[in-house]
Amino acid sequence: MSETTRAEATGPTAGATGVDAAETDSAAPDGQGGMPAVHPRRDRRRWLLWGALVVVLFLVPIYLPGQYLIVSTWVMTGAVGAMGLTMLIGQAGQLSLAHSFFLLVGGVSYTVLSSDGTDGFVGLGLPTALSLVLAVAISAAVGAAFAPVSGRLTGIYLGVASLSLVFLGWWLARVLPSIAGSTSSGRYADDLNLFGFDFGEKSPTLAILGVPIGQNERLFWLYAALTLIAYFVARGAVDGRVGRAWRAVRDNEAAATVMGVSVVRQKSVAFAVSSAYAGLAGVMVVWWYDGLLKPDEAVDSGTYSTAVAIAYLAMVVIGGLGSLGGAIVGAAVVFGTPLIIPLLSQGDSSAVLSSGGTAFSPVVITYLAYGALIVLIVLFEPGGLAALGRRLTARLKRS
Amino acid sequence: MPDTTAHPTPGAPPADVPAGAREIPTLAVEDVTVRFGGIVALDAVSFSVAPRSIHALIGPNGAGKSTCFNAVTGIYRPTSGRVTLGDAVLTDTPPHQVARLGVGRAFQNLALVAGSSVLDNVMLGRYSLTSGGFLSYGLRLPRTMRAERRHEERAAEICDFLGIGAHLHRPAGVLSYGDQKRVDIARALAVEPTVLLLDEPAAGMNASETAELAHLIRDISTGLSISILLVEHDMGLVMGIADRVTVLDFGRLIADDTPAVVQKDPAVIRAYLGSVEEESA
Ligand SMILES: Nc1ncnc2c1ncn2[C@@H]1O[C@H](COP(=O)(O)OP(=O)(O)O)[C@@H](O)[C@H]1O
Ligand SMILES: [Mg+2]
C-alpha cells in the first residue's frame, strides 16, 4: 500500500482516458521466427495518406468560398492551441486554465519582434519568419518559467493558480499599451512573408484555375501547413520517449521516478510544450485578425480572456483528453460552429464577431451546445469523441 | 510458461555483453532507519544482497518491506543510514537516477499505464538508457528513430521472455491480472538492472499461477544472472527459491539467514508464521 500514498495524488485525469499512444490498436504480431516484428508494416500506407491529405488541403482554397476559408483558418487556430493543451492535460495530467494567456504571449511577442517601432510602439523589425520562431520559443520559455508553480501543485489547485496568469496578462497588456497596443485601437503586426510570398496579400496577381489567390487562400495554406506540422511533431513526441514519461507521471509519479523519469522536469517540459503550441496559435490569431493585436477590455470576454481558456478546455474534453486528433475535432466543434451557423443560414461570418448582445446569437447557441456536449461526454464517454470514434471503427472492422 | 530455450540468451544486455560476464555489484542496506512522524517503519536495518542471488525479504503486513524498497529506490529518504550498490551510494542519488545505476523495480500494486500498449509500458523501462526530447522525437531524427527501434526490439524480446510477447500492441489494462504483473516485471527488466526488486509478485495469484511465477523468477535469475530482492508473503514460494531470507517485524530485522535456518527460528515462527495463521483464521 505504502508506495501508492504518494503516487495516488496524480492529475485530474488519472487513467480515465484510454487514448494514449497510437500503437494501442490490437495489431496481430507477425514474424514468428527471428527478430520479433515490433511494428507491423504500416509505414508506407501512412506516408501515402499524408501525401493525399497535403494534395487535398492544397486544392481546398481553390474550390471553397472565402467565407468558409475564414471559418477553417479560425478552427485551425483552435486546433493548434488545443493540441498543446491536450498534451498537457491528457498526457501529462496537468490542469491548466492559462491557455489564453499563452496565446497573448505568442501574439504580443510576434508583434513586437516583427513590426518596426513606429507610432510610439515597441518593435524590433525582425524578419517575420524569424519572429514567428522566436515568438514560439518565448512562449515556451514563459511556460517553463511557470515550473516552480506547476511542479508543486496538482489538479484543481494548479488550474486555479494557472488561471491567475490570465488575469496577469490582461493587466499587463492594459498597462503596457506601447507593447500590446491599446484596448481601443490595438496595434498591427506584419504579415508572414516567406521568400517574397506575402501571406496577407490583399490585391493578388497570382491566380490558380482562375481563382485569385489572396489572403484567405494563402492563410488557409499557411494554417493547414502549420496545423499539419504541429500534429506531426506532437504525434512523434507523444508516441515516443517524452509521451511515455508524461503518461507515467500522470498515472503514477513513484513508478515514473523509479523508471528514471524526473517528475519535476517532465511537468515543466509539458508546460513549456503546451505553451509553445498556444504561442503559435496566438500568432495565428493575430494574422487571422489581419495583423491586429488588441488586448481585451474585460478579463472574462475577448480574444485572450478566461472565456477563451475555458473554450480550449472544452475542445480537449470534447475531443477526448490526450487525443491529438480529438483536439482538432474539438476545435471544429467549439470554434467552428458559431461561425458556420450564420453562414449556413445565409448570413456572413463577420456579423457573428460583432453580434454582441442579442439573446440567441450563434455564440450563445454554441456555448449552450458545447456545455451540453461536455456534460454528456463526462457522463457517458470520458474518452471524448476520440474514444467514440475508436469504438465505431472497431465495430465496423468486426462486422 | 515462457520457453527459455526458444530465445537465444534472453538476458544478453544491449551492449552484447554475454550474460554472466557483466559485473553484478552487491546491494547493501546499511543501518537504515525510516520514520514517519511517530512511526518507525524501518529501525536500523542492515542486510546485503549477494551478487546473482535470490534474496527474500519477508515479514507480516506493515513490517516495513515496501518501505525498504522505497528507501532503496530513493522514493523515501531514510532518516539515517544508507544504501549502496557497489561503489554507488543510492541514498545520495537523485531518485530518478537510481534506475541508471542498475536498479529495476516491480510494484506491489500494479503501476502500469493502463491505456498504453504493453510495448509502450515496457519501453518506459528504457527511459534512462535512451535520450531524445520533444523535438528529436517530434522531428523523427533518424538517429533517434534508429535507437527507438533497437530498444523496441529489445523490449519485445523481454516481453517474449516473460510470455507476454503476443500482447505487445494491446492496452496493458485489458490483460489478465497475472499478465499485467508480468508487464510490470518486464518493465523493470527493461531497465537492464543488476538488481531486480519484486514487491509481492504473487499477491492475488492462485496456486498454479504462483508456481509458474516461481519458475519465472528462477528463469530470470539463471537466464540474466542478476540479483533479485523479493518481497513475498507466500512462504512456499520464498522457501522454494530463495538463497537467503531476511525477516522484518515492526520495522526491525529479526532474522537473516538461509531458508532452512530461518524456517526453524523461533522468533520468526512467533512473529511471521504466527501472524499468517491469524490472517488465514
Ligand atoms: N508514506 C507513509 N506515510 C506514513 N506511514 C507510512 C508510509 N509508508 C509506510 N508507512 C507505514 O510504515 C509501516 C510499514 O509499511 P510498509 O513498508 O508498507 O509495510 P509492508 O510492505 O511490510 O507491508 C506501516 O506502519 C505503514 O503504515
Ligand atoms: Mg508492502
Helix content of chain A: 55-70%
Largest interface: A-B, 51 and 63 residues
**Rg calculated over all Cα atoms of chain B:** 19 Å
Q: Tell me the major beta sheet of chain B.
A: 6 strands, mixed
Description:
- The complex is a heterodimer of chains A (399) and B (281).
- Chain A has 399 residues and is mainly alpha-helical.
- Chain A has a domain at 70-326.
- In chain A, 65% of the residues lie in helices and 3% in strands.
- Chain A contains 17 helices and six strands.
- Chain A has helices at 2-7, 43-63, 66-91, 99-114, 128-145, 147-150, 155-175, 177-180, 215-239, 241-251, 253-258, 263-288, 306-319, 324-344, 349-354, 362-380, 384-398; strands spanning 187-188, 193-194, 197-198, 207-208, 211-212, 292-293.
- Chain A has a two-stranded antiparallel ribbon with strand order 1-6. In chain A, strands 2-3 form a two-stranded antiparallel sheet.
- Chain A is globular.
- The model of chain A is unreliable at 1-36 and 351-357 (pLDDT under 50).
- Chain B has a six-stranded mixed sheet, with helices on both faces. Chain B has a four-stranded antiparallel sheet with strand order 2-1-4-5, with helices on one face.
- The relative contact order of chain B is 0.19.
- The model of chain B is unreliable at 1-18 and 277-281 (pLDDT under 50).
- Chain B contains nine helices and ten strands.
- Chain B is 35% helix and 21% strand.
- Chain B folds into two domains: 24-102 and 193-281, P-loop containing nucleotide triphosphate hydrolases (Rossmann fold), CATH 3.40.50; 113-191, no CATH class.
- Chain B has helices spanning 65-72, 118-124, 134-138, 142-161, 177-189, 207-224, 235-241, 259-264, 266-280, and strands at residues 27-36, 39-49, 54-58, 80-85, 88-89, 103-106, 195-199, 227-231, 244-249, 252-257.
- Magnesium ion binds at residues 65-66, 108 of chain B.
- Residues 65-66, 108 of chain B line the site of magnesium ion.
